[in-house]
Write a structure and sequence with these properties.
The N and C termini lie far apart (78 Å). This protein is mainly β and 396 residues long. The chain folds into four domains: 54 residues, no CATH class; 158 residues, Jelly Rolls, CATH 2.60.120; 77 residues, no CATH class; 91 residues, no CATH class. 1% of the residues lie in helices and 46% in strands. The chain is built from one helix and 31 strands. The strands form seven sheets. Strands 7, 8, 9, 10, 11, 14, 15, 16, 17 and 18 form a ten-stranded mixed beta sheet that branches. A seven-stranded antiparallel beta sheet has the order 27-26-25-28-29-30-31, with no helix packed on it.
């Protein structure tokens, strides 16, 4: 039930302190107290000057630490009006603790550890428990019927008087070595809402953890290739894309192992699983939006050659009836291939082109005598090469 507090004045505004008993002998814990219109911070049993109530939640960017007994610990945080990625850093030390964050109707529980990478509950709404296997107190499959609820008041955690029942499913538990500063990313794509609710569960006899949610900012971009099925292919393609990393072991704009990687600066869309070349002649392997491996490309990308393309057509046959093959636009391939040596898997770049069929030639004058071929392009990659034969498209 809600905690009752007592003041030594007729209103919060004319009081000097807040107490936990009617006799005004025991000072309340340091923190913010509100009458619904004004709030005042209590420090050392002295109320500081009043301020109008906006959000009474703890401002983002303030480090929070918890230590104490078994229980569920809750924190309300105010992210303000800015947009961007909110970087959550959670360190459970060794003894396992669970975490989830509620924001804008969604539940966030995926973490990346600088020690071993991805951690997440198999339940999208569940708590993810991280910590050292050697400090496990037998949490998997256990029901905790009456965990004490602690609420953060801006300075410390105080018991709310409520209890909460929590069941720890096997899929919630992701233990290993002590994971260090685990990172979660929450996208904030509009000014509102600003309230973030953090819930941390200490299922063992004691708990100690630290938390920080940075205020939202745009992530820093880096240069990358498109996604490829292997590093051998990604290494041979140009850095035509800008993606964004949330550092775990890296730095902003310089991705490293276990960093989160996104296609947008707000951290809303993780990169699809696959292989990506990136700045410095390297290739990253991405799984679940996290870099799980980095390798050095064996050689720099080969030089480029120019070819000439027509406008796009939806059917290959259009180029075989004699009116649509005028070559008007210059493009380039990533490999050192002339017109006669274009092959499947070559990348057409210089700009992003629409998927479809293109006539291509070694020069704009080649079409005068019908010296051209036809390529099918998807995501700037050559998928098939064809010729016109007897009025039809046939594979080269």
């Amino acid at each position: 039930m809600p905690q009752t507090y007592y003041i030594d004045g007729s209103t919060l505004l004319n009081s000097t302190a807040v107490y936990t008993d009617a006799g005004l002998t025991t000072c309340a814990p340091d923190g913010f107290y509100s009458d619904g219109i004004n709030s005042r911070e209590l420090v050392g049993c002295i109320l500081l000057p009043a301020q109008a109530c906006g959000s009474c939640a703890t401002p983002c960017g303030k480090p929070i630490a918890a230590s104490g007994g078994q229980g569920i610990y809750k924190v309300d945080l105010d992210a303000g009006n800015s947009i961007g990625a909110m970087i959550v850093t959670f360190n459970p030390a060794s003894v396992p603790d669970g975490i989830r964050v509620l924001y804008n109707g969604g539940v966030y529980n995926q973490l990346s550890s600088p020690v071993d990478g991805y951690h997440a509950s198999t339940d999208p709404n569940g708590y993810t428990y991280v910590g050292a296997t050697t400090s496990d107190c037998g949490i998997s499959g256990t029901t905790y019927p009456a965990l004490v609820e602690y609420v953060y008041n801006g300075a410390s955690f105080v018991a709310s008087g409520n209890t909460v029942s929590v069941f720890v499913a096997a899929g919630d538990v992701s233990l290993g070595a002590a994971p260090g500063d685990c990172v979660m990313v929450i996208p904030k794509i509009s000014a509102t809402p600003s309230l973030i609710q953090v819930e941390a569960v200490g299922p063992c006899s004691g708990t100690a953890w630290s938390l920080n949610i940075a205020c939202p900012v745009a992530l820093t971009g880096y240069s990358s290739t498109t996604r490829h099925p292997a590093c051998t292919e990604a290494c041979g393609h140009p850095l035509t894309e800008t993606y964004y990393n949330a550092p775990v072991t890296g730095t902003a704009g310089s991705p490293a192992l276990y960093d989160w990687v996104f296609s947008d600066a707000n951290g809303q869309f993780i990169l699809t699983d696959g292989f990506y070349g990136f700045t410095g002649g390297k290739c990253m392997t991405v799984q679940n939006g996290i870099i799980v491996a980095i390798s050095t490309c064996s050689s720099p990308p080969p030089p480029t050659e120019y070819i000439y393309l027509s406008t796009v057509r939806s059917l290959c046959y259009d180029f075989c009836e004699g009116t649509n093959y005028t070559i008007v636009t210059q493009k380039t391939t990533v490999q050192n291939h002339s017109y006669a040596n274009i092959t499947l898997g070559d990348n057409i770049f210089g700009s992003v082109i629409v998927d479809g069929f293109y006539a291509y030639a070694g020069s704009q004058t080649d079409t005068a005598t019908g010296v051209y071929r036809i390529m099918q392009v998807e995501n700037n990659e050559v998928m098939s090469i064809l010729l016109c034969g007897a009025g039809q498209c046939v594979p080269l």
